[in-house]
Amino acid sequence: MLCRTYSAACIGIDAITIVVEVDVSQGISFYLVGLPDSAVRESQQRISTALQTIDARIPGKRITVNLAPADIRKEGSSFDLAIAVGILAASGQYSFEGLGNFMIMGELALDGSLRPVPGALSVAIHAAAESFKACVFPVESAYEACEAVNIDVYAANNIKEVISILSGEGCHVPLKPSDAGTEDSLDPDIPDFADIKGQEYIKRGLEIAAAGSHNVLMCGAPGSGKSLMAKAMAGILPPLGRSEAVETTMIYSVSGRERGSQGLLRKRPFRAPHYSSSAISIVGGGVKALPGEISLAHNGLLYLDELPEFSGRLLEMLRQPLEDRRVSISRARYKVTYPCNFMLVASMNPCPCGYYGLPGDRCSCTPYGVARYVSRISGPLMDRIDLNIEVSPIPGDRLLGEERAEPSCAIRERVVVAREVQFSRFKGKINTNSQMGPADIARYCPLGPSEKQLVSVAINRLNLSARGFSKILKVARTIADLDNSAKILVSHLAEAIQYRAASLG
User: N or C: which end of the chain has fewer CB within 10 A?
Assistant: First the structure.
């Protein structure tokens, strides 16, 4: 007897349907075909033991399981449940009505319980697009997948509950998006800007960067607060919008990473890889072409501390993702594309010892050593930085003062308002000012005569590239949004040029 069940596999953040064909006939053998990897081939032992918990078994006959299409490699343990259900139906141990309307995924434990699987949200979205009526997932994965629209998502703790759902017994109801947990609470581990004394100029630059999702480079002596302020930026970023949350959660889901909660991600990601990280871990790739740190930071912040210490090859690999906001990983049989619309926040010392330019002759570096250290960051990469901020040590009287600075919650309110202005302006086409293309800049960044004269002088004196000019306009547009101004004024341009000039000084 031949039975078909339906599961899915993820290529990048996109899912494809996998048809699980199970044939039970005369003989004694078990064949699993369709380019399965080791984890898939080992499913026979997991399924056999799990079925015993419901007084079922793999029949002693000739069983052939085919995972179609056969030319795509099947990886992982997510097909356990679909294969088990197919065996039960093909052998006549259970009868299921409308089995072809369900997409089924889950890893079986030996006691019959279900473990979560990666890519559930992508699978649910794909199932809805392919006109399936429902999905069955382990509980943890179901909370994530129920955010997909126009499809019922059932949560099951074990194979017994799966059989009950597929049999239509009516004791299980689909999850609703409101049933899922949220993550919109403030993280107490994030530093508050109120506890960082002084550095108002740097805080202002970081507020502008957060409001428009602009790239930032902070350069200053050790101990001046660069890392602390970069971490505090996570506290002024607005929560993810629904479309952003869905896309970001899909990336984390297919990566198989534990997120520590149910439902969609609500907080913007903050990723801070060490400078010893490999290129694959940052950009993505490997045997399974998994997303890297730049994709895990999608719609959030990627913090690179000690920027010159990262390998030159890795830094150059960031140039294309920073511009295109996506990264493509090619393999012999397929190509995977991951989104990576992240805000780059980087910090560095001015020289190897860190004290170049400070009074007291503390710097022990030669001019050649300083130039060689700074040159580790190439001109093309520097040209992709929107704001370059020089960070000076905090004076002693400010450190000893007891006054508290403006708290992160107050800064966050202004950032949220500016983001809402941008969302209303772009109407979902793009999310922030930093994503504007040439046509958007021409439409949303018109300049008056005085503003044009100022920009013309800046282009000639600072020898700005076309990219540098467009970034000044984008930053000025964000400053105007924070100022609740419909037009870009001279003061907005002057502040934007000030951050750009520092990167060329």
Answer: C
Distances (CA, A) of 354 to 51, 219, 310, 365, 391: 64, 10, 16, 9, 12
Q: How far apart are CA 253 and CA 472, in angstroms?
A: 36
How many C-beta neighbours within 10 Å does residue 492 have?
A: 22
d(C-alpha 450, C-alpha 456), whole Å: 10
Q: What pLDDT, in 10s, does the model give residues 242-257?
A: 889 999 999 999 988 7
Instruction: List, in order of start, the domains of the chain with CATH numbers.
Output: 2-179 (3.30.230.10), 193-426 (3.40.50.300), 436-505 (no CATH)
- Sheet architecture: strand order including 270-271: 270-271, 301-304, 343-348, 216-220, 387-391
Q: Is residue 135 within 8 Å of 7, Cβ to Cβ?
A: no
- How many C-beta atoms surround the C-beta of residue 139 within 10 A? 18
User: Do 99 and 85 touch, CB atoms closer than 8 A?
Assistant: yes
Q: Which residues pair with 103 in a beta bridge?
A: 135
The radius of gyration of the chain's CA atoms, rounded to the nearest angstrom, is: 27
Query: 67 forms bridges with which residues in the sheet?
Result: 20
Give per-residue pLDDT as tens, 424-466. Answer: 999 888 999 999 999 999 999 999 999 999 999 999 888 888 9
Over residues 24-34, mean pLDDT: 91
Report which of 264, 242, 237 is spatially closest to residue 252, judged by C-alpha positions.
264
CA dihedral 286, 292, 296, 302 (to 10 degrees): 170
The answer to whether 488 and 449 have CB atoms below 8 angstroms apart is no
CB atoms near residue 421 (< 10 Å):
19
Q: For the whole model, what pTM was predicted?
A: 0.89
Please state, rounded to an integer, the average pLDDT across all residues of the chain. 90
Round to whole Å and give the CA distance between 202 and 204. Answer: 5
Query: Which helix (H) or strand (E) covers residue 338, if one does?
Result: strand 335-339
Q: Are 357 and 347 a contacting pair, CB within 8 Å?
A: no
